[in-house]
Specification:
The complex is a heterodimer. By secondary structure, chain A is mostly beta strands. Chain A has no helices and 12 strands. In chain A, strands 2, 5, 6, 10, 11 and 12 form a 6-stranded mixed sheet that branches. Chain A has a 4-stranded antiparallel sheet with strand order 3-9-8-7, with no helix packed on it. A two-stranded antiparallel sheet of chain A has the order 1-4. Chain A is globular. Chain A starts with a strand and ends with a strand. Chain B is mostly beta strands. The chains are: A mainly beta, B mainly beta. The interface of A and B includes residues 96 and 105 of A.
Amino acid sequence: GDSVTQMEGPVTLSEEAFLTINCTYTATGYPSLFWYVQYPGEGLQLLLKATKADDKGSNKGFEATYRKETTSFHLEKGSVQVSDSAVYFCALSEIQGAQKLVFGQGTRLTINP
Amino acid sequence: DTGVSQDPRHKITKRGQNVTFRCDPISEHNRLYWYRQTLGQGPEFLTYFQNEAQLEKSRLLSDRFSAERPKGSFSTLEIQRTEQGDSAMYLCASSFSLTDEAFFGQGTRLTVV
């Protein structure tokens, strides 16, 4: 079945550091790919998405590119802030619009000032 | 509209008791999803509705679990004869069928003692 594997955490960085959180997937078709973020005490929020190969999703300074050849969707940010501290989930959906999401295990990110 | 609302936020119950959770989706959304998230893991899909019809159920949803969405509005998730292994965060999400973004509630944390 479909699966998502994320870089294990926790990840701790200093403010203004470069961030990469790796995500690879296994799927039978051509899924849509997502990054969700969960801030402390809040629900999951969609951070960015990409629906086809070579698409780049971006939001709040975060970027991820849908790489079909490497089945990857790595999350990057050039300069992290303390407010980026959260748990980040990579996910896929095989069926566009159906939102039956398959999530990775999550990566806890802590940014120190 | 303030987003997806779940009630209660926390529930502690004794093993063997029945519990029921409620989810109120965003009003114009006709798809509603239930997920379960255990500590340190990503959410796992349980079931989803389009309007009042329950279209898919995961194998995770044993016969002790039942979900309903009368009139295609709010949804309830009932767990009968709770077990300690049912302790988890139960997440509800909703989406509009023609897009592929799901909005999540803050979840109901169930603890079975």
